[in-house]
Write a structure and sequence with these properties.
Residues 1-21 are annotated as: Disordered. Residues 1-13 have a biased composition (Polar residues). The protein has 66 residues and is an all-alpha fold. It has a domain at 26-66. The protein is 76% helix and 0% strand. It starts with 5 loop residues before the first helix and ends with a helix.
């Protein structure tokens, strides 16, 4: 069985925290405060994309059943 070393788990933890901080930084204003409008716009775009993709997948699954 694989057991990660202490240095590997530290690197995974720092990579996770750096990706979270990078995600949060993308929703900050120039002054460093959280921009709720930008976050909501992005969430809306994600919902629209998922909705459109689900329609495409549904149509493609219909083609594959024939």
């Amino acid at each position: 069985m694989f057991a990660p070393s202490a240095s590997m788990t530290q690197n995974m933890g720092s990579a996770k925290s750096s990706s979270q901080s990078a995600l949060l930084k993308s929703f900050q204003n120039k002054d460093g405060t959280f921009d709720i409008n930008k976050a909501m716009d992005t969430a809306g775009m994600m919902v629209n994309t998922v909705s459109q993709l689900s329609k495409v997948v549904k149509d493609m699954s219909g083609w594959l059943k024939v």
